[in-house]
Amino acid sequence: MGCTAVQRPKLGSTFVEDRQRINAVNEIKVDPGIFVSENKQKFQEVYRLGKRLKLMNNGEVRICYHRDTSAKRAVKILRKDFLMYQDESFDYENEIDIFKSLDHPNIARMYEFFDDDRHIYIVMEYCSGGELFQEIAKRQMFTEIHAARIMYQLLSAVSYLHTNMIFHRDIRPENILLEEKNEIFNIKLIDFGASVLSRKNYKMIIDQDSLIYTDPEALTGEYNEACDMWSCGIIAYILLCGHAPHNMKSVSSLENMDFGYNQEPWTHLSTESKDFVSKLLCPPSGRLAAKEAISHSWVANRAYPSLPGQEIVTEVLENLASYHTNNKLKDAVQTYITSQLMTLKDTRVLREVFRSLDKNGDGKLCKSELLEAFNSTMGEAFNEDDIAKILNVISGGNNDYINYTEFLKATLDQRKVMSRDNLKGAFAMFDKDGNGTICADELRKVLEGGHQSNDEIWHEIIHQIDQNRDGEIDLQEFRDFVLSKT
């Protein structure tokens, strides 16, 4: 699927248009996206390629291994000659800009990208369970509980995207990965090459692989959030029935569909499942939005029959309440390690707790959700001011909610986060030229986040940490500072 646009931003630039100048250290905004950048080294010097996971017209997806850390990741390798021939150069620019900004438990993480004469390399989270498409082919049909669990996670990711004014535009089982090969079915949404911001002017180009999941309204070139919801409806139908509601032979065949609700297997499925699917596969005016679909009784009553244990939730909330940071660089180091170095295994339990606290499934924890959690779990009287203070500390005063990485940052085992290897990795991330020290300009390149800033800010941070007063930070000074209690 391709798309064209009125403007083409710089490769790897953020799509946030309104920028403010950073005039003081406390104005630095730390989020996972600032650590996703172009690696100027050659891809082959940083990663070793493993087996191919997927072959595409414009490239391939393969496993890759970080040469220094042995971290196992996936890399999407795009051929520039094909992209230039197809006039699809904006696709990968757009994919990088959107992908790097996303922070949701059911959306794969992007780590970095490389750009050479022949290829673009987009390095991302590796999910060993493979594509949902492959699981559908193997199972044919899913139980309603398993189908609802998958749909809950997908709708949570889509709700998050739509809240941030992003349309995915290519939701299909091939773009939904299973974290592991097991019966839990934790999923990750991928492939943002066709995604767009809703305020931009784009037209729709549909390929044959995506056509079966495409809303008939989108065939005219018009695309909005309702079209993503149609795709979700098709996936729900396939999960429950083992096949699509129409056998696509041509574009026109999509306009007259028989959903067969009076036939097998629908006659043996719950009335709620039929109601859910029918409210997605209907005209746009009556179609459920993502936040409505996720609260539908079929999803809400089946998606998660069991919740994390009380002791685990209590411990997590205690960590949230006691979390504190008094320095932007320390906050940045913790955010980097949490988003870039911690594994799916490291975060598995916390991910389930996050989901249980996120009552509306929008991928973030708001004041009312936290207030309910603390008062129902801790047995203490927390008021809105107490929760506001917790939010302010964990989000760095930037938001009235806690996003997924902020939640992990505050609740992960700090001994594991601040391990010797992780601190070495964080230091290397700031040490852009690899000379063994961090200078003020290197801090700026990482933390400025596309904003303008005053030079004094970065020299002030260096001065706080630089013990031998040589104007730079070495690894030992970096470790001493990050691990200090002050």
UniProtKB/TrEMBL annotation:
<dbReference type="InterPro" id="IPR050205">
    <property type="entry name" value="CDPK_Ser/Thr_kinases"/>
</dbReference>
<dbReference type="Pfam" id="PF00069">
    <property type="entry name" value="Pkinase"/>
</dbReference>
<keyword id="KW-0479">Metal-binding</keyword>
<keyword id="KW-0067">ATP-binding</keyword>
<keyword id="KW-0808">Transferase</keyword>
<dbReference type="GO" id="GO:0005524">
    <property type="term" value="F:ATP binding"/>
</dbReference>
<keyword id="KW-0677">Repeat</keyword>
<dbReference type="InterPro" id="IPR020635">
    <property type="entry name" value="Tyr_kinase_cat_dom"/>
</dbReference>
<feature type="domain" description="Protein kinase">
    <location>
        <begin position="47"/>
        <end position="299"/>
    </location>
</feature>
<keyword id="KW-0106">Calcium</keyword>
<dbReference type="Pfam" id="PF13499">
    <property type="entry name" value="EF-hand_7"/>
</dbReference>
<comment type="similarity">
    <text>Belongs to the protein kinase superfamily. Ser/Thr protein kinase family. CDPK subfamily.</text>
</comment>
<keyword id="KW-0547">Nucleotide-binding</keyword>
<keyword id="KW-0418">Kinase</keyword>
<feature type="domain" description="EF-hand">
    <location>
        <begin position="455"/>
        <end position="486"/>
    </location>
</feature>
<keyword id="KW-0723">Serine/threonine-protein kinase</keyword>
<dbReference type="InterPro" id="IPR000719">
    <property type="entry name" value="Prot_kinase_dom"/>
</dbReference>
<dbReference type="InterPro" id="IPR018247">
    <property type="entry name" value="EF_Hand_1_Ca_BS"/>
</dbReference>
<protein>
    <recommendedName>
        <fullName>non-specific serine/threonine protein kinase</fullName>
        <ecNumber>2.7.11.1</ecNumber>
    </recommendedName>
</protein>
<dbReference type="InterPro" id="IPR002048">
    <property type="entry name" value="EF_hand_dom"/>
</dbReference>
<dbReference type="InterPro" id="IPR011009">
    <property type="entry name" value="Kinase-like_dom_sf"/>
</dbReference>
<dbReference type="InterPro" id="IPR008266">
    <property type="entry name" value="Tyr_kinase_AS"/>
</dbReference>
<dbReference type="GO" id="GO:0005509">
    <property type="term" value="F:calcium ion binding"/>
</dbReference>
<dbReference type="InterPro" id="IPR011992">
    <property type="entry name" value="EF-hand-dom_pair"/>
</dbReference>
<comment type="subunit">
    <text>Monomer.</text>
</comment>
<feature type="domain" description="EF-hand">
    <location>
        <begin position="345"/>
        <end position="380"/>
    </location>
</feature>
<dbReference type="GO" id="GO:0004674">
    <property type="term" value="F:protein serine/threonine kinase activity"/>
</dbReference>
<dbReference type="GO" id="GO:0004713">
    <property type="term" value="F:protein tyrosine kinase activity"/>
</dbReference>
<feature type="domain" description="EF-hand">
    <location>
        <begin position="418"/>
        <end position="453"/>
    </location>
</feature>
